[in-house]
Amino acid sequence: MQGDAVRRSAGERRHGHTISHEGPLAVLWDMDGTLVDSEKVWTISLADAARELGGTLSSAARSAIIGSDLPRTLVIMFDDLGLPREPARMAQAEQVILTRTAELFADGLEWRPGAQEALRNVRAAGWPTALVTNTGRALTELALDGIGREHFTVTVCGDEVPRAKPDPDPYLRAAELLGVPASACLAVEDSPTGVLAAERAGAAVLVVPCEIPVPGGPRRVHRDSLVDLTADEVRADYARAIADCAA
Ligand SMILES: [Mg+2]
User: Fold this and answer.
1) 59-94 pLDDT tens trace
2) pLDDT above 70 (res 113)
């Protein structure tokens, strides 16, 4: 993981100033919208659930749901549809969403561009890695059947921590399991909710937007996609995130 002279000079040429070449101690991957194109799947199951509730989810509510866990998703959906937050009805809607999403996940998920190769590159470079997702364990296991468990040292799901993203708990838990400080990790995220969680945990964030734009900020670096995300690029992006913060 240590940068050699070639990498150092490449990094300096690319960014035009001296930067840290240490690289992150671990790479923490979001799943939905970052590794796989599952936000489109969620769009289908959310629309089905809204239909069963007698309404149509607005596009604003759909955007607000991106990156959220299921309890928050249901609150946004019921408010959007103008329905009282009645626990029994919300539980019923939750079941519709889970069943429909499981069917669609089991059919197989599409990779986000470059994601599979990026996962392989990071693993081959020897970094400890975590999957850090707001999706529950049961659905995540279905997704992992396609993604491959070999890419991750540990996996943390939204229903395994006290508070899901945008709270920092999932990222803090992943760092704890890996035995590294979250502040020395690089998180890879596609949504404002996920980025917020990673930042609150103290991690640097590689932002690769999917469905909705994500604003810039300290300790954030943006890429258009995961295409050509080599180990050297991971080090360079991490260094840029840290440099941006120090600047
Ligand atoms: Mg996501």
Assistant:
1) 999 999 998 999 999 999 999 999 999 999 999 999
2) yes
> Using 50, 70 and 90 to split pLDDT, how confident is the model at 22?
confident
Q: How far is the CA of 201 from the centre of ligand 1 (A)?
A: 16
Provide CATH code, domain 39-106: 1.10.150
Instruction: Please state, as a whole number, how many other Cβ atoms lie within 10 Å of the Cβ of residue 128.
Output: 21
Query: What percent helix, strand, coil does the chain show, rounded to 5?
Result: 50, 10, 35
Residues whose beta carbons lie less than 5 angstroms from ion ligand 1: 30, 32-33, 67, 190-191, 194
Q: What is the DSSP letter of 109?
A: -
* Global confidence as pTM: 0.87
32 is catalytic: yes
Q: Which CATH number fits domain 5-37+110-246: 3.40.50.1000, 3.20.20.80, 1.20.1270.220, 3.30.420.40?
A: 3.40.50.1000
